């Protein structure tokens, strides 16, 4: 299947510094691909080049089958873009905003109204469509922003940190809307600094640092790259750490790692039952026993730390 987003060796320079320095990306149709990276890694620059807002200095990129440099008008006709700041007018109502965007996309007056009503319904905003956007919550504004980006039915949607500054409930509302878009066949490229967001939404993730992709895979593949699942013991008595370390070594057959009141070691999930049974026969004061899987936070810190070193 031809990817809807494809970049090879993209470069973009600002003065003597490269914001993109050999950036590669391939996103299949109907999938959500996440770009993760620290501030200044090149995520937003990549989105701006792929959406034709910036020209690149080297490499090639195609979006929806069109070259971003030589066929920029056809690229823009095929995409939607939601930036870091909501692009809606606070004085107008939600419905008026959508009709305005529809007219800017050269839709007829009747078609713009029809599409506005359909999108308000789809994003659960029909009941507030007549209210001014100034009365909307952060999550409602973001959903309206998403709706506006879909008025021209784009094949590809770029989301540049769409949930920055939202509370957990509003963020969940946006996640639900994004999942719905992907389920309907839209290809989405998402940049985010929220690792949980990428973990929950993305089919695949590219970790970006210094303008290039340093790791790519599914969330499970990236987390699995850090090694095995670990069993963790949290104690209440610091004098029992040595005894807990010996117990965990005996159950797992691995060398435990000790951090103050916490002891952990690589283990199979089935070993958790054996550990609980062993603990019941001891006098160790345990605050918590947990089976811990690697997280994207740890992948992020490990891989970006290696690049920095």
UniProtKB/TrEMBL annotation:
Primary site of residence: membrane
InterPro entries: AAA+_ATPase, ABC_transporter-like_ATP-bd, ABC_transporter-like_CS, ABC_transporter_ATP-binding, DrrA, DrrA1/2-like_C, P-loop_NTPase
Biological process terms in GO annotation: daunorubicin transport; doxorubicin transport; response to antibiotic
Record localization: Cell membrane
GO molecular-function terms, A-Z: ATP binding; ATP hydrolysis activity
Sorted UniProt keywords: Antibiotic resistance, ATP-binding, Cell membrane, Membrane, Nucleotide-binding, Translocase, Transport
Membrane topology note: Peripheral membrane protein
Protein name: ABC-2 type transport system ATP-binding protein
Any one annotated GO CC term: plasma membrane
Residues annotated as domain ABC transporter: 5-235
Family the UniProt entry places it in: Belongs to the ABC transporter superfamily. Drug exporter-1 (DrugE1) (TC 3.A.1.105) family.
């Amino acid at each position: 299947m031809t990817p809807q987003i494809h970049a090879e060796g993209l470069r973009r320079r600002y003065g003597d510094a490269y914001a993109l320095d050999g950036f590669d990306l391939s996103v299949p149709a109907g999938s959500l691909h996440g770009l993760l990276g620290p501030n200044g890694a090149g995520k937003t620059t990549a989105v701006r080049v792929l959406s034709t807002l910036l020209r690149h200095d080297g490499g090639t990129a195609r979006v929806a089958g069109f070259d971003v440099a030589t066929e920029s008008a056809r690229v823009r006709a095929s995409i939607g873009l939601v930036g870091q700041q909501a692009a809606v007018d606070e004085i107008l109502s939600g419905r008026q905003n959508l009709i305005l965007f529809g007219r800017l996309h050269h839709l007829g007056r009747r078609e713009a109204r029809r599409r506005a009503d359909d999108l308000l319904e789809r994003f659960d905003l029909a009941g507030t469509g007549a209210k001014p956007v100034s009365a909307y919550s952060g999550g409602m504004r973001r959903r309206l922003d998403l709706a506006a980006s879909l008025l021209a039915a784009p094949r590809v949607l770029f989301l540049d940190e769409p949930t920055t500054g939202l509370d957990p409930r509003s963020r969940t509302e946006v996640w639900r809307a994004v999942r719905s878009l992907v389920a309907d066949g839209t290809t989405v490229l998402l940049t985010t600094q929220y690792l949980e967001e990428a973990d929950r939404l993305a089919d695949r993730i590219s970790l970006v640092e210094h303008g290039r992709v340093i790791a790519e895979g599914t969330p499970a593949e990236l987390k699995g790259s850090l090694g095995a699942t670990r069993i963790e013991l949290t104690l209440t008595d610091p004098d029992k750490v040595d005894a807990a370390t010996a117990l965990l070594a005996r159950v797992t057959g691995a060398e435990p790692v000790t951090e103050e009141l916490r002891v952990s070691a690589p283990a199979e999930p089935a070993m958790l039952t054996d550990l609980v049974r062993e603990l019941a026969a001891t006098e160790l004061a345990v605050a918590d026993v947990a089976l811990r899987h690697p997280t994207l936070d740890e992948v992020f810190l490990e891989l970006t730390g290696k690049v920095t070193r």
